[in-house]
Design brief:
heterodimer, A: 75 residues, alpha+beta, three-stranded antiparallel sheet, B: mainly beta, BH3618-like
């Protein structure tokens, strides 16, 4: 893994068109600013991991479809 | 939808190794089943947000539409993954990561919403019946 040290207001450029700036450092938190083309998706990693986990827990098993059908039957 | 595979070039999150999926409609219940073509034991129950009483109007990043080749909004369909449970009230639906599908091109992507009020584990019962009835 590449490791770089940056100060507030300094930035990193990735692949010519992605600019990540250190906006502030306070109380153990770093605030980052991103400038990137629209097609670049920028997400907090924990959101990504939460959805991966949720998908894995959503795989259907044989015995549990009936409560859902019951719920839809109520519409 | 017919039985041709839909290509999720990046897979469903957590199942990135699988890119071909099938969607089957259960007309009697309004449910759809999304399965991995080469591994049918991996199957999800998905629903259309049209069945909700609560409005579902996510802001999906333009980049996901671009991933599928772009086009007018009406060319795309949205589906949501349901997490089944033993009782009706425990069933949840993932509103934060809708499946965006271009039906004609047979292409799909699981979009992730950022900075949204829509969560990963929302009560399906509340979405279907409306908050006032729960």
């Amino acid at each position: 893994m590449l490791s770089l040290t940056r100060k507030v207001n300094e930035a990193i450029i990735i692949n010519d068109d992605i600019n990540i700036e250190i906006l502030s450092i306070k109380d153990g938190k770093v605030k980052l600013g991103f400038k990137a083309p629209r097609e670049i998706k920028i997400l907090r990693k924990e959101v990504y991991e939460e959805i991966q986990l949720s998908n894995k827990l959503s795989v259907k098993s044989d015995n549990n479809i009936n409560p859902l059908k019951e719920l839809l039957g109520d519409i | 939808m017919d039985n041709n595979a839909i290509i999720f070039s990046k897979g469903i999150l957590g199942f990135e190794e699988y890119t071909e999926y099938l969607i089957l409609e259960d007309e009697s219940s309004g449910l759809y089943y999304l399965s991995v073509k080469e591994e049918p034991s991996i199957e999800f129950v998905i629903i259309s947000p049209h069945i909700f009483k609560e409005e579902y109007s996510p802001t999906i990043s333009e980049s996901y539409f671009t991933d599928l080749g772009g086009g007018a909004d009406e060319e795309f369909s949205l589906y949501l993954i349901v997490k089944l449970a033993k009782t009706m009230d425990e069933i949840t639906v993932n509103l934060q990561a809708p499946l965006l599908i271009h039906v004609e091109r047979r292409m799909g992507v699981q979009a992730i919403l950022e900075g949204t009020r829509y969560g990963v584990k929302e009560s399906l019962s509340r979405m279907i019946k409306g908050a006032d009835q729960c």
